[in-house]
Amino acid sequence: MNSGVKKGQNFRFGFYDISPERRLAAIKRVGFDETMFWWGDEYEDTDGSRFDLFDTATRLGLGVNTCHFPSTHADDLWYDGDRAAEYVKSFDTACRECGERGVKNLVLHLTRKLVTPEINEYGITNFAKMLDSARRNNIVIAIENTRFLRYNDFILERFGRCDANIGFCFDSGHANAYTPNELPLEKYGDMLVTTHIHDNVGPVGEAPDQHHLMGEGIVNFDNVFAGLKRFNVKRINLESYCNPTSRYYGVLSMDEYIERSFATLSKQMDKSGIE
Fold first, then answer.
1. Which 8-state DSSP code applies to residue 205?
2. Which pLDDT score is estimated for 3?
3. Do 240 and 214 meet the contact criterion of CB atoms below 8 Å apart?
4. pLDDT per residue over 251-261, tens digit each?
5. With contact defined as beta carbons under 8 Å apart, do 84 and 119 qualify?
6. Cα(233)–Cα(2) distance, rounded to whole angstroms?
7. Domains, the chain, ranges and CATH?
8. Tell me, what's the pLDDT at 205?
């Protein structure tokens, strides 16, 4: 049964000229249960520190179940030496920080954009250390579907699909833009712990991964949500942005955009029988 499914909105949904507290308050005000944070320092110029954001969300009554480990150096997983050691150390720090705050899922990319090192044993060694960090801090590594699912397959073949500290983050936009014929939700849905739900126009152009609001692109969300229901989804987090490629950019205010975001998700959940 899909009872009490949590509705979440990624914190970085746009409108970066507006204070972080006002953005979080808007997410809460329209009815979202949760928000998601990028657990790194790359966006501190517009967002402030991740620690302050977490504290503000908590004070406002927003849950924070899922955070995203920075994908900036995701390919370092597959190397040896200092770069890999630093990557593993950064992940350990993120696990400790998130674990201390009760964050359960830490989303991980296994590659960085088109940077695709050969699959190798370094990746196994590094991931094993990261998994140990996750276990010590009660974190689930939510492996995301990105461009190349062979990396997901390799890791899961070596570490198994039943490990309590390994899960799956389904990204609807990545599935549509990069692997439209590979059905990642069907492949990994039995491990589903969280989602990144957003829309795009498919695998065309230089930037197919637009992170649009549901309905701006061509993703068949009836099919997506049927799959989410089948795999007993517990939380549906939106990763949609009001960015310059969005039809709403410069048209809707922050409040109008986030209201539309919540209403669109709620309507699709109702249509799909997810409560």
1. S
2. 53
3. yes
4. 999 999 999 99
5. no
6. 7
7. 6-272 (3.20.20.150)
8. 63
- Which residue do the tokens 């094993």 mark? 128
Virtual torsion, Cα 217, 220, 221, 223, nearest 10 deg: -170
pLDDT of residue 123: 98
3-class DSSP state of 136: helix
Tokens of 91: 């992940």
Q: Per residue in 97-145, pLDDT tens?
A: 999 999 999 999 999 999 999 999 999 999 999 999 999 999 999 999 9
Nearest by Cα to 6 from 271, 187, 262? 262
pLDDT at 207 over 80: no
Looking up tokens 């309507």 gives: 267
With CA atoms as reference, report the closest residue to 198 among 178, 181, 215, 186. Answer: 215
**Beta-carbon neighbour count of residue 129 at 10 Å?**
15
Look at residue 2 in the predicted model and tell me its pLDDT. Answer: 43
CA-to-CA distance for 99 and 219, rounded, in angstroms? 34
Strand partners, 171: 196
Inter-CA distances, 115 with 111, 112, 166, 234, Å: 7, 5, 23, 32
Which residue in 69, 95, 66 sits closest to 234, CA to CA? 66
Rounded CA-CA distance 129/133 in Å is 6
Q: What are the structure tokens assigned to 203, written together?
A: 């695998």
Determine phi and psi for 170, rounding to 5 degrees.
-85, 125
Residue listed under structure tokens 């992170």: 211
Q: Mean pLDDT of all residues in the chain?
A: 96
List the structure tokens of 45.
Answer: 């110029």
Please write the tens of the pLDDT for every residue from 216-243. 999 999 999 999 999 999 999 999 999 9
Q: What string of DSSP letters covers 214-272?
A: TTSS---HHHHHHHHHHTT-SEEEE-----TTSTTTTTS-HHHHHHHHHHHHHHHHHHH
